[in-house]
Each structure stands twice: as C-alpha cells, then as structure tokens.
Write a structure and sequence with these properties.
The protein has 507 residues and is α/β, with parallel strands linked by helices. It has 18 helices and 16 strands.
Length: 507
C-alpha cells in the first residue's frame, strides 16, 4: 500500500513555520519553483496528498502556468488542490485553472501558518495510481485508465469487458482482477467486479442514493454491493465499483414468451418489499404536481416523435403539455422508489430479481415503479425486438403487420374508456403473440390496484411515462421500430392523460 503523505508546493516558497506545521502532521512538503516533466509529475502524484499553488507576485506568469497545467492532472489522482494568495491573486489563479470541482479545491486567502497543512492532513486522496497494473481487454481513455488503475491498485492485472448500458453515457465494465503475488489470498481467481465510470456529479449522486436507499433496504442478495474503498473520484469523472452479479440475465431477455411472472413477483415482493413497507408504515402521500416534472420534461420531447404522433391523431403539442398536466390533482401513496425501473435494470438469477443502477432512487409515488416497468416492457422491449428483424428497405415499420398487431393489443390495454379499460386487464386470448405483454400488465396492475383503486390515477402516471419515452431516440433511422413506437407512445400517453382528466369512470 502506497502512503500518500507528500504535499507538492509550487510558486512562492513556504516559510519555515509552514514547513514545520506539515512535519508536525506527518506530511512531507516538497517545494518546487519549476514545472516537472510529465513522467516526474506522474511519479509525484502517486504519493501526493495535496497540491499547493502559492501565487508568486514576482513570477506571475509562472504562477498562472502552474494553475493552468497542474490542477486537472492532480485531481485525476485524487489530490487536493489548494490555491494560496490574496483574494485578487486567487481569482487570477482560478481564472487560469478553468472549471474545477469546488469540493476538491480550497482557496485560502493569506492563511495562518497551520491552515494549509491542516487542509492537506484532513483530505483523503484514496488509492494511488498503479502504473504497473496490467490492463487487458477493452481499451480505455486516458482519464478512465487512471481511475481504473487507482480503483484496482492492489492487483497485478485486470481484464475489462465493456457492458452495454442505458442512455446516461456511463461506461460500465465487467472486471476480472488478478491478485498481486504477495496478496493474502489463496489462488489467482477472485469474484468479478463491475466498474461504472460516469460524470463526477452523477457518480456521487448514485453513491449517495445507493447508501440511502439500496444498502439498508434491499436484501444484499438482490443488489450489487459497492466496494467503497474502490469508488474514487477524478477531475471530471468518478467510478463506482462493486461486486458483479454472475449468472444473472436482464429481465429484457426473460420476459418473453410468458411474462417472467416469478421474477416480477420477486422484484416487488422481495427486493422492493422494504420500500413498500415504509410507504404503508408512514402513511405519506404525494400530489402529482410535486413530482411529474421528475418523470417527463416537455421541453426535451423530440420533435421527430411529435411529428410521428400527429400521424396517429395527437393534437396537443409538447409546448402545451405542461398546461394540460398541471390540471391534474391526483394524490398517490408515497415511499422510496427505484426511479428508473426498466427491463435492463432488473436482472434475474434463478428467478430471483436483482436490481442495479440506483442513480435515480428517490421518494415518490409508490406506483411509479410499476408504471415505469410496464411502459418499458410493452414499448421499449418490443421496439428492440422488432429492430432486429426490420429492414429499412422494406418501408416504415408502422406499415408492418407485426406493428399493427402490437398496436391492436396496446390500444386495448392502454385506453381509459368506459367498458374498455380496467386497472387489471383480463387474461389474453390464447394463442397470442403478445401474451407476455398482457401478462406483465396484468401482474403489475394487480399490484397497482392494491395501492390505489382509482383507474384514472394509474392511467395518468402511465401517460407520463409514455411521454417520457419521447425524450429519447435510440434508433434515428426514419421509419424505424423505435421511432414508430415512440411516436405512438406520445399519442397513447396523451390520450391516457386527457381521458383521466375527464373523469372517466373506473370499472
């Protein structure tokens, strides 16, 4: 294990009393007046705890150069950045350093002799970068490579395999790590890890959400477990590391042909049982006006989907959606929710549900997760399946017989019209190509009916999640299944919201 006790000091040299304060705290102060080479800087940052740039009035250009070239590199290694000078001098250093994460930077105006040393001593830089770590498998960018070398610094080699992810832009890897020769383990094989690299703010948000919701309320066998000592932060990105759930398949690969009823039961009655128990125990409610903007943002709905929706008869444009939605006054039972419960974030191992990706976990309407999963299965997963067989040369998917058959079932399931809509649909007529969609909708709505017996309120939240689909575009090809279904989702979602606001009676 590398001891990170060095404080790198650039610019105006420290006084002897400042040096003494560092020594008293077990820190080694390394004062420099010139820029090190790239190789030298890398070797210094491996053992560094803090980087101090003290503005030197006699060498303004050099001080500004330090601020321009050093902080980002230091932050990639978890090193605390400290600016020292007068208020005007610090503003100058900040201007040259660009945008830096404020929580990783300290600006000390004419500090007392002990302040810099204390700032460095209290900072935990995390594991250092192991430049000798052998990286195998899929390639990494330079900044991602440093994060991986820090997270797995105690291993001799790691093999990375990229995993397909969602729409967030995060890079997710399956990591097989080989222990160092002197590691206190028996053999070279360890259980695999996952490593998720994303923007620094998103990584920190997901880590907080995981600690707040998942680690205390979801059984350890039904979620990944974070390795907090391996979750490190860089200048712009961070990495979450945890144990990889082996032998599990995403719900997206299991839901056909029968609806994966056992997995869905395990998801809500086992994995999310504590979420639901809390909601019933605290008796809290939430009004639709408090949360709907967390589900759908009308200004982010893509025009291409609105244009497609018009061909299905939609009349209300995205610019007028807010006024329509604000007319609702539905109240829902409130509790912890996953927040992004799609068929790629639910895995199953031996029919036991395993949840991943808690970045949107929050407190909201308890039926939200039910509606989110129902829309994802009925629309998104069918679009993915259809894309594999669709050929653009064959014309728009909206004219395909399979689309017309799928639409017939969607019209029956997602219509709030007296005599046609029920919160719990009847079993599908067999044989049926889309029996799996009927099965999922029926099972989820049985759960929703237990939470809220009003058809209108559940229909309304289904409508919100259908509109949410139109904020994204997975397949930009004209006439693709994805675009056909998202445009249709806008039309169906708008109809559900409009019909629920008219007070259609439940059956």
């Amino acid at each position: 294990m590398v001891i990170r006790s060095k404080v790198l000091w650039f610019g105006l040299p420290p006084t002897s009393s400042v040096l003494e304060e560092h020594t008293n705290r077990g820190l080694t102060l390394d004062s420099r007046d010139a820029m090190p080479t790239v190789a030298e800087l890398d070797s210094l940052l491996v053992i560094a705890r803090a980087l101090v740039i003290a503005f030197d009035p006699s060498r303004k250009g050099v001080s500004n150069g330090f601020a321009r070239d050093l902080p980002l590199k230091a932050l990639e290694h978890g090193v605390k950045v400290v600016f020292v000078g007068t208020l005007a001098e610090i503003e100058l250093l900040r201007a040259h350093s660009g945008t830096l994460p404020p929580e990783c930077v300290a600006c000390l105006v004419s500090p007392a002799k002990h302040v810099v040393a204390e700032e460095a001593a209290r900072h935990d830089p995390g594991p250092s970068c192991n430049f000798f770590l052998s990286l195998k498998g899929d390639p990494l960018s330079t900044s991602d490579e440093i994060l991986i070398r820090r997270s797995f610094s105690d291993f001799r080699a790691v093999t990375l395999k990229s995993q397909t992810g969602g729409k967030s832009g995060a890079r997710v890897y399956l990591v097989h790590a080989e222990p160092a020769a002197d590691a206190d383990v028996n053999g070279n094989y360890t259980m695999p890890y996952f490593a998720k690299i994303d923007r620094l703010d998103k990584v920190r948000e997901e880590k907080r959400a995981f600690e707040r919701f998942a680690s205390r309320y979801i059984p350890f066998s039904q979620r990944p477990n974070l390795e907090l000592t391996r979750c490190v932060s860089g200048a712009k990105n961070g990495v979450l590391v945890g144990d990889f759930v082996e032998g599990a398949l995403p719900l997206a690969k299991m839901v056909r042909p029968f609806g994966a009823r056992q997995v869905i039961h395990s998801l809500f009655d086992d994995a999310l049982a504590c979420f639901r128990q809390q909601a019933f125990a605290n008796g809290k409610t939430i009004n639709v006006r408090e949360f709907w903007k967390e589900i759908v943002k009308p200004d982010r709905i893509l025009d291409v989907h609105w244009q497609t929706a018009k061909t299905y008869g939609a009349k209300v444009s995205p610019s007028r959606l807010s006024a329509l939605i604000e007319k609702a006054s539905f109240t829902y039972r409130a509790g912890p929710i996953h927040g992004d419960l799609n068929a790629e974030n639910v895995f199953a191992r031996h029919n036991e549900a395993v949840l991943i990706d808690f970045c949107r976990a929050t407190v909201g309407p308890l039926v939200s997760d039910l509606a989110c999963l129902e829309v994802a299965v009925a629309f998104t997963e069918e679009a993915k399946s259809a894309t594999a067989d669709w050929l653009a040369e064959g014309g728009p998917y909206s004219s395909d017989p399979h689309f017309k058959e799928w639409r017939k079932h969607i019209d029956a399931l997602f219509s709030l019209v007296p005599g046609q809509f029920a919160i719990v649909p009847p079993p599908s007529e067999l044989p049926c190509r889309y029996a799996w969609i009927w099965s999922v909708s029926r099972q989820l709505r049985l759960m929703g009916h237990y939470l809220d017996r009003d058809d209108r309120s559940y229909a309304f939240i289904l409508g919100l999640y259908l509109l949410r689909l139109c904020m994204y575009d997975d397949d930009p090809r004209e006439g693709s299944p994805d675009r056909s279904m998202r445009g249709f989702a806008y039309s169906v979602g708008l109809a559900l919201i409009s019909q629920s606001l008219k007070g259609a009676k439940s059956r």
